[in-house]
Amino acid sequence: MSAWLGSAMIAIALAALGGVLFGRQPARRGRLAGLVLLATLVGVLILAGCGGPSPVPTPKPTTVGEPLPVQTSPLRSPLAEPEAGATRLPVTGRIAFHSELSGNFDIWVMNADGSDPVQLTTHPARDIEPDWSPDGQYIVFASQRDDPENLQLYIMRADGSEQRRVFPEVQPWDNWAPSWSPDGRRIAFQTNRDVRNTGFDLYTVRPDGTDERPLIVAPANQYHVDWSPDGRRIVYVSDEDGDGEIWVANADGTNPIRLTDNYAEEAWPRWSPDGRWILFQSTRDGLWRLYIMRPDGRDVQAVSLTGLGHDEMGTWSPDGQYIAYTSNRANNDWEIYIKPVRENIWQRLTFNFPRIQDRFPSWTR
């Protein structure tokens, strides 16, 4: 429309110009000359405006009741928006774990599908790393409640009652990372009590605190011990060559054999309920990942996904079909997950925000 008007003004100017050049009356020719100048100026200005940028239309105002654009919060619970690959798994049993939801680390239990979480310990000191007794009636864990400088071993019933220290006296060293033997008669743990060694060694003790015995005492650190289902062997980690590697030995600590030998870190080995596999974590692919291997170190297979975050502290379901583990794949929050051993699907069990750690799962029937 503006271009048409500019062109019309130019045409008027040209017509008037003819009157100026050929008109017979001098006064009329003077008035037409003024008209030529004015029409030409207006026409040029209109056409020049047509070549500029088009005006930006005014945004439509939001009417009453019209939804505003969605703003996604990094703390939005995946319960409202499930993660890709997540699913609901048909699992049973109970999972114990430690969580700092209360403000410091305490022991919690929940159903294996994540429902009905219950806090068992409420002491202001740290309570960490629970492990079930074979019959599911008791939980052993480590705590600083009697010594802020050192962790001690404690036992309680599965409902949190009758909490007591394993050793009669508070010991001036760390005792932690407990693992209950399959027959329920002994508890293996790591400790730095041996003056001959500057690192951690493995010991065992009866649940009543008697008959303490050294299990693996060697240079460097020995840690993360677990029993085979038949109670005849143990699996553990040693860093005597500079990084953590997985070893097996007889239940009395004799005949140690190294299963892994690489430049990566290996940790948290756990024997499968049928004794055919060992679950462990490794940095061989960059981040911490979960793997399984045969008890002789053969047939290593990855069981957790890559590119999502660290997957750590795996433990088996009682039937050996699933694993529970800790991962920081969701906004760097350490939460508890479960997955089938051989499928790339999972279910997230805890949703505590922000930056609240839920770690170290232990699964019982």
Describe this structure in words.
The chain is mostly beta strands and 365 residues long. It folds into 2 domains: 2-50; 94-364, 6 Propeller (Neuraminidase). The protein has helices at 2-22, 26-50; strands spanning 94-99, 106-111, 118-119, 127-132, 138-143, 152-157, 164-165, 175-180, 187-191, 201-205, 213-216, 222-227, 233-238, 245-250, 257-258, 266-271, 278-285, 287-293, 301-302, 311-316, 322-330, 333-340, 347-348, 358-364. The strands form 6 sheets. It has a 4-stranded antiparallel β-sheet with strand order 3-2-1-24, with no helix packed on it. A 4-stranded antiparallel β-sheet has the order 4-5-6-7, with no helix packed on it. A 4-stranded antiparallel β-sheet has the order 8-9-10-11, with no helix packed on it. The longest helix is centred in the first third of the chain and has 25 residues, at 26-50. The radius of gyration is 37 Å and the shape is globular. Mean pLDDT is 82; it is low at 1-37 and 39-82.
